[in-house]
Design a protein that fits this description.
two-stranded antiparallel sheet; about 110 residues; two-stranded parallel ribbon; about 20% strand; globular
Length: about 110
């Protein structure tokens, strides 16, 4: 994987997560779009096939006024879908990282 990414990279097997921290959502969008372009060039160089349709974006913050804001990110010319509660390594994450959705799903499984 390229080392010149501006975002933090988390990997497990073939799952990769990019994370950017900023007070400005536009700055996050710009950094992520730049890093996805770098990754796309890397994948093409090594003849790897990323799946943009499985790529998702989300934001973690406590600002309730911006709860419905979505990031404008594209990967290989395809708009990246926004997911309010993405699942990463089996854990459902929510905007404020309370894990409420994840705990509710586990409670539902235990009740059955």
């Amino acid at each position: 994987m390229p080392e010149n990414l501006t975002s933090r990279r988390f990997q497990y097997a073939d799952d990769t997560a990019l994370a950017v921290q900023s007070f400005d959502f536009k700055l996050c969008e710009d950094k992520l779009n730049e890093d996805l372009e770098i990754l796309l060039k890397y994948y093409k160089m090594w003849k790897l096939k990323p799946n943009p349709s499985k790529t998702e974006s989300t934001m973690f913050h406590l600002n309730n006024r911006l709860a419905n804001q979505k990031l404008n990110i594209s990967f290989d010319g395809i708009q990246v879908q926004h997911n309010k509660a993405p699942k990463y390594l089996g854990i459902n994450l929510d905007r404020s990282l309370t894990y409420r959705i994840h705990l509710e799903r586990i409670a539902q499984k235990l009740s059955t």
